[in-house]
Amino acid sequence: MIVILKKNPDEKQLKNLMGWLESMNISVHPTEGKTHTILGLVGDTSAVDIDLLRALDIVADVKRVQEPYKNANRKFHEDDTVIPVGQTQLGGGVFSVIAGPCSIESEEQICAVAQAVKASGATMLRGGAFKPRTSPYAFQGLRGHGLELLLKAKRMTGLPVVTEIMDLSQLELFDEVDVIQVGARNMQNFELLKELGHTGKPILIKRGLANTLQELLMSAEYVMAGGNHQVILCERGIRTFETATRNTLDLSAVPMLKKLTHLPVIVDPSHATGISWMVKPLAMAATACGADGLMIEVHNDPKSALCDGAQSLTPEAFDDVMQSVNAILPHAFKAPKEV
Amino acid sequence: MIVILKKNPDEKQLKNLMGWLESMNISVHPTEGKTHTILGLVGDTSAVDIDLLRALDIVADVKRVQEPYKNANRKFHEDDTVIPVGQTQLGGGVFSVIAGPCSIESEEQICAVAQAVKASGATMLRGGAFKPRTSPYAFQGLRGHGLELLLKAKRMTGLPVVTEIMDLSQLELFDEVDVIQVGARNMQNFELLKELGHTGKPILIKRGLANTLQELLMSAEYVMAGGNHQVILCERGIRTFETATRNTLDLSAVPMLKKLTHLPVIVDPSHATGISWMVKPLAMAATACGADGLMIEVHNDPKSALCDGAQSLTPEAFDDVMQSVNAILPHAFKAPKEV
Amino acid sequence: MIVILKKNPDEKQLKNLMGWLESMNISVHPTEGKTHTILGLVGDTSAVDIDLLRALDIVADVKRVQEPYKNANRKFHEDDTVIPVGQTQLGGGVFSVIAGPCSIESEEQICAVAQAVKASGATMLRGGAFKPRTSPYAFQGLRGHGLELLLKAKRMTGLPVVTEIMDLSQLELFDEVDVIQVGARNMQNFELLKELGHTGKPILIKRGLANTLQELLMSAEYVMAGGNHQVILCERGIRTFETATRNTLDLSAVPMLKKLTHLPVIVDPSHATGISWMVKPLAMAATACGADGLMIEVHNDPKSALCDGAQSLTPEAFDDVMQSVNAILPHAFKAPKEV
Amino acid sequence: MIVILKKNPDEKQLKNLMGWLESMNISVHPTEGKTHTILGLVGDTSAVDIDLLRALDIVADVKRVQEPYKNANRKFHEDDTVIPVGQTQLGGGVFSVIAGPCSIESEEQICAVAQAVKASGATMLRGGAFKPRTSPYAFQGLRGHGLELLLKAKRMTGLPVVTEIMDLSQLELFDEVDVIQVGARNMQNFELLKELGHTGKPILIKRGLANTLQELLMSAEYVMAGGNHQVILCERGIRTFETATRNTLDLSAVPMLKKLTHLPVIVDPSHATGISWMVKPLAMAATACGADGLMIEVHNDPKSALCDGAQSLTPEAFDDVMQSVNAILPHAFKAPKEV
Fold first, then answer.
1. Considering the entire predicted model, what is its pTM?
2. I need a surface site. Which of A2, A248, C10, D155 has the fewest CB within 10 A?
3. Is B226 left (phi over 0), alpha (psi -120 to 50) or beta?
4. Residue to test with chain D: of A1, A2, A73, most D Cβ within 10 A
5. pLDDT digits (tens, 9 = 90+) for A178-190
6. What ipTM was estimated for this complex?
């Protein structure tokens, strides 16, 4: 970490700063420049509060040389993390496709979708029981009952299941869930992340709408610091000024995350765009640039056809996406070993 | 609500849509245009899922005519909400200044700051016991013990206290807290908001870093839908591309929120900029454009002076801000009754 | 176009509005709702100033049903535009790779790069003579002399050339240039666009850093309204809060633009990320989701190796990108005819 | 400037880098850290291309210690710049109010507005003759004829005039214009800025929709590097995700710019929000936080009343804004001398 001091720093404040840094076992190496003095900090600086440092009267700026995350950092864990889930795995060369409906609506629905997506090659089943909705007046999910239906579909198809937790009080219901999802809006719900660090379950963290890649990695670090190293990262679009799509899918995040961390990185093209016909080209693009998998909404409601055309695909359209993705897959980007 | 249909909509899907809308007691008034058919929906459309509607195959676009929030909507509650807190109140013509340290560190610290800010005219005391920190390795607050210290300062000074809750499991500790704060990162923690709707306490909701004003109002609606109408909104900066300040304070939010809702609206210039010397001009600007109050970080650590210059002001600098704000206050913007 | 009136609109203002619309040969179809009146406007509404309309006292909101662009609109021109350039073409099933250095530095440099990229399969040569630089103290390009060197490389290799114009006064120098580029910072330099609409040359427009897809299409419309229908659109990253990459490449733009317009759409992964090793995965992703081509920076300076590792690739690295892109190409997304 | 090298940098590339820096008369002071080597660059680094440096293979990161602008930098010009304009001035303690219509429509209109705004206390007249419009089908301004009408209003009222230039070819028409405006979309039209640096006229530069404060200062630097030091900066809202207002007015920019530069800083609340009733509270806020002036749209069309309610105020509403602003003015923020 480098601290750039302002001109003529107050002596007493500088002494205080030096003392504080040394109390954290950080050695300080000053260099006098023409106009500024620079302090090189050597030691474990991951616990140093960079905002606090930057805010000191005598400090002009602070620059990290090392990333603030350790467990998630590829520099310290060169090999890809592989997370076994049921008969399959996340990461380590297996391309995971997690498919299913946005909301679990009925046993008939979730089981039919599960069978369909399995037939098309999905490796895991998703389905929402607890639903984060912007409006208190919108459908909030079947909750506990939804989880039961999801587990029925798991038993019927053998597909491992992924579903979202919204609050710690729900955790006791997640015993048979294979992968616990933390939604974009809870990406910085630090109390939740901490507690999930004490479970033995894989945790899939979705990137928040306005969160940087470093913040996403710090959220993974929260889980990992608790001892749970089974974390999967999911890019699902960020909030920008563009209104043609619901969010802006940031595919640069895929190769960049793969370089910064050893954790599996997947992409959710359904939520990013909110437009069903865009799922296919963006799933193909995500595959091409090296994602470890996809998360795709698939819906099946033959009675009303109300949701045709939503961000959810029909099972037929999903099958078409799978074929296109599978054609790209053998040619997809693989980062060189030495990054 | 207006639904614009695509050209030549599929008959069966249109019939399904009509049936679904009517099942929600919404009457549908179609108008044939030259190229498009428009459906006018009349009835209580606040429960209609606009994203779902927009995603239908036969729908080109959907436009709300009425806002999706009811309890928070000034159209249905013309008079300003006034929230009594101890001997003071939020809203209703009283200008509230909520001041105190970012983190509660010791009894000595919180009591000294409390006395100082009271002397300068603060109406309420703030202090963080549970701290949301980006890094798991950063100080997480004194937690339960911090709350105890805050309540000591309350008893000593008589100032009502505001402090942040991070998880529902902490709620039992908030009995003597006067106003419960929901932080920016939890603005869409819907389970938390729902539960807070069943407390009898005023809830101060900070705008999320990437949340629109409508989303902020919908989060207020979550609390209010549970029966708790004592909600305060706080603008504290949004995330943009600009890097000169930590966030971009959106002061347009103040007059706009005051027009859209009857709830009190306050501004936090400390977190928005992250720079102590900017607190004064932005506090003055927030006052000028009609905010109902301010939330300002004040710190006091004479021993180390470590935090001098942080986003926190010293008690002396806070006193100077108060004088400048008080000079602006009599001339501040007041919205005309009928806007 | 739909105009939603406020409750109880002022009679006189409404009459004025009606008269103004009818003076533009737009017929007005009112529908009385329970709380609002809606006006359906029928006729050529592309000249109606939507901001002006929205700003009227009596208007609650305005909604376009038709896009404000005509010439660029796929609805009115179903077939892909094909732009012949020298022996090659842009669009129409040919995948164009436009490669070359950021700045033209010397005859030796531009000719060496031109030969190298041609050997690897590039279809066109790029090189900057007039350089938009944030700082007045940075190198501003070789300007007229640079253009001469670029044309030498064109004659030597037979590759058509693309280069940026920064001001109308430079236009007379562009006679032998094959494609004129309008840079991101000039995307809304409307005087420049208008004049380029009177040239017979293909115009490549880069998306501005903070411009929506609709604004990009309106800039194309400026050129096309002048009679020049040879316009190519280029996605090159937008400005967001993320700092891990220089800009955020918006690949959703590719399938969305291909749906909205018949013009060729290419992607520049070099400028979007500013990081050379990211060019390959993002070039592959852009190809996979259906781009008509790529624009890639390639540099060659064996003497100093100063720029190794910049956003520019070496010729060897570019050759590797081409092979990976060519492997993806046969499997790339093709939009269904009727989207 | 500080260059942080990657671990074990390639010897030859490091030597090249050292040679290149020394060829620019920059002395290099290396410091060996535990994991990284840091180079301190001493000398005039304003011409060093930071992006190029950052992109080198052996460089991990680069950090400026000094700002890249010199002429605009308050560090080198402590006193506020004062720009005399006719009988008035910009900066130096005079609060400037530049008012007038968006577009000049007729002699009657511009003269009536000019007289009205003068009577209410405006110090300068604005009016658009060349209009940047997103659509080629929208009204493009009266152009040369519009300028003539503006100058008539100037002669009638004695108010100095401000109007926008869109292309260098228009410059010859601006002889009697007092202040030349560069619009937000042309903020990085570097050829235009360079040429305006050779005029003797004050140049008012509006901040681009997605431009940082540093980029705004670099655009000022372009004009100043040509010898013209009469530059005024104007904050007018930036593009964010929020849709409740047209843009997000960034009032933090006012105190921050005043600290970074000695140039006058004004605020345009009309364009920032696009909503007429918001002009008043935001004009008051801009005044409170220390702006040197305001730019406000005022329209006058008694015949049609078509524009009532637009972002333009009526002369009556403008008069009301002036009174409110004048009440705030004596209490406005003044930065301490030593910042």
1. 0.93
2. D155
3. alpha
4. A2
5. 999 999 999 999 9
6. 0.92
